[in-house]
Design brief:
InterPro entries: CbtA_put. It comes from Methyloligella solikamskensis. Strands 1-2 form a two-stranded antiparallel sheet. A two-stranded antiparallel ribbon has the order 3-4. The chain has one domain. It is mainly α.
Length: 252
């Protein structure tokens, strides 16, 4: 069973991650590069534009697929600065590696959830679980913290990550209570849990902060990031179901 879970997760993540890397090359990555041009391409905090899918996502510690391109930050002892992949092939390779790693994580989470719930693992079931994953890690957090381009003003990173994590966990718990519980009180509790982080409010900068990034570019990036994030979850779910059935023991 463990070997089947690992094999299905790895294969699903590999295929989904590579597919999303291609999608990002034509959607979110050009927007990130254009945003960088408004500040010379070097002066911003690259940690704010890491992707893992999201999620995975954007305001999580890994800051994955939601932001569309991996900007790996490595501190060098020689120059006390930041190393970053060069634009072009090197950046594409590192972005693809980040996407594959994120997709593998998504696939394993989906498998674990379905196995614990006792659900039959098929493409349809896995995509349903993936939709819930996108709502929890992408759609719900974006209501308070939208995906951000380099150069856009934002509140403290740790505060945003904490709010993102709390929102994702609350949304996941709420979906479970609302969709899988048969008790009315549990569904009502789920609605309250779903709304709680949004009532609390996401962390934002006080006052008005100027941004060098044009508003239309930021809006386009928000939509594209969420679409890429949703695609990563959907492809991870599909390939999980696909490989799970094909890796079934012959005796089954």
């Amino acid at each position: 069973m463990i070997s089947r879970v690992l094999a299905a997760g790895l294969l699903a993540g590999l295929l989904a991650g590579l597919a999303i890397a291609v999608l990002q090359a034509f959607t979110t990555t050009p927007l990130i590069l254009e945003a960088e041009s408004f500040e010379g391409g070097h002066g911003h905090d690259h940690a704010q534009s890491l992707t893992a899918a999201s999620a995975l996502l954007q305001h999580a510690v890994l800051k994955t697929a939601a932001n569309g391109a991996a900007l790996i930050e490595i501190h060098s002892a020689e120059d006390a600065g930041m190393w970053m992949p060069e634009d072009g092939l090197e950046r594409t390779v590192f972005t693809s590696i980040a996407n594959v790693g994120t997709a593998i994580g998504f696939a394993l989470v989906l498998l674990a959830g379905m196995l614990l719930a006792g659900d039959r693992i098929t493409e349809t079931t896995a995509i349903g679980w993936a939709a819930a994953g996108f709502v929890a890690t992408g759609l719900s957090p974006s209501l308070g913290l939208s995906p951000e381009l380099p150069g856009m003003p934002a509140a403290d990173l740790v505060s945003r990550q904490a709010w993102w994590l709390a929102t994702a966990l609350c949304t996941a718990a709420a979906l479970w209570l609302i969709l899988r519980s048969e008790h009315g009180w549990a569904k009502a509790l789920g609605v309250l849990v779903l709304l709680a982080p949004h009532i609390w409010g996401a962390p934002h900068l006080e006052g008005h902060a100027e941004s060098a990034v044009p508003a239309h570019l930021a809006a386009q990036f928000t939509g594209a990031s969420l679409a890429v994030h949703a695609s990563l979850w959907a492809l991870s779910g599909f390939f999980v179901g696909f490989w799970w059935r094909r890796l079934a023991p012959a005796s089954a």
